Amino acid sequence: MPVNSTASFGRQRVRQRGSSVIELPVIALILVTLVVFAVKIGHGLSLKAKLDQLAYSLTSIVASERLEVDLTGSGGVITPQIADALRVVAERHFQTRTKQSSVGVGIHLEQLKFGTTVAAPLYRSEFSGVQCQSRQKLLKLSSLAPVGTVQGATKGLRPDLFQVSVCLTSLSLLTGEFYSVFTQDFVERYYNSSAVLIGRQYD
User: Fold this and answer.
1) What angle do CA 66, 71, 75 make, to 5 degrees?
2) Which of the two residues, 6 and 85, has the higher pLDDT score?
3) pTM for the structure as a whole
4) How far from chain centre, in Å, is Cα 120?
5) Which residues 6+ apart lie within 8 Å of 161 measured at CB?
6) Domain membership of residue 141 as a residue range
7) Is residue 21 pLDDT above 70, yes or no?
């Protein structure tokens, strides 16, 4: 083999090894980034599912039959104390009291009370915790409350309608300190879950 061909082949192998040294870290960095991104997406979806389930559970508590402590407040109307109690339950659910970098929990509690007349229903709204607003006003969902049909019992009456919205903010544990600035608006919209249920009793 000519000397020039041997030297050219040697230089080519050196360039290939140099390219491999550069490419491997880049590929490794891309793979690590994809894995971290997938983990964060999975964590976010899991947290959203937990939030949806919590909103339904809290609404079920408020809309349930009268317990030993009347959860619908005096006169069957929701109170600020009820919203505070729901927030405490939500905070414990997400363990925000045990970590320095904690999520902020907000509650928006709504009630639509129809009464026994044909007048406009009574709407009440209570807030607790960080800023939280339901995406859809309960007044627009009044058709979900059925009219009773049992003669002598519920005929012509409509049950109360309840909605509980749960919001999470300051999710540094999920988004990280660097990304929180860029994803704050999305996080506040995405981590906002509401549930609507009819009361178990007719007025």
Assistant:
1) 80
2) 85
3) 0.75
4) 31
5) 111, 112, 114, 138, 141, 142, 144, 145, 196, 197, 198, 199
6) 3-202
7) no
- Cα distances (Å, whole numbers) of residue 40 to 63, 72, 193: 35, 39, 20
CA distances from 114 to 14, 119, 126, 135 (A): 83, 8, 18, 22
- DSSP conformation class of 98: G
Q: What is the pLDDT of residues 71-110, one digit of tens each?
A: 555 567 888 999 999 999 998 887 744 454 567 899 999 9
pLDDT of residue 121: 84
What is the number of structural domains in the chain? Answer: 1
Q: Which residues pair with 193 in a beta bridge?
A: 166
The Cα–Cα gap between 63 and 72 comes to 8
- Residue 22 one-letter amino acid: I
The rounded distance, in Å, linking the Cα atoms of 86 and 93 is: 11
What dihedral do alpha carbons 96, 98, 99, 100 form, nearest 10°? 100
Structure tokens at 91: 């905070």
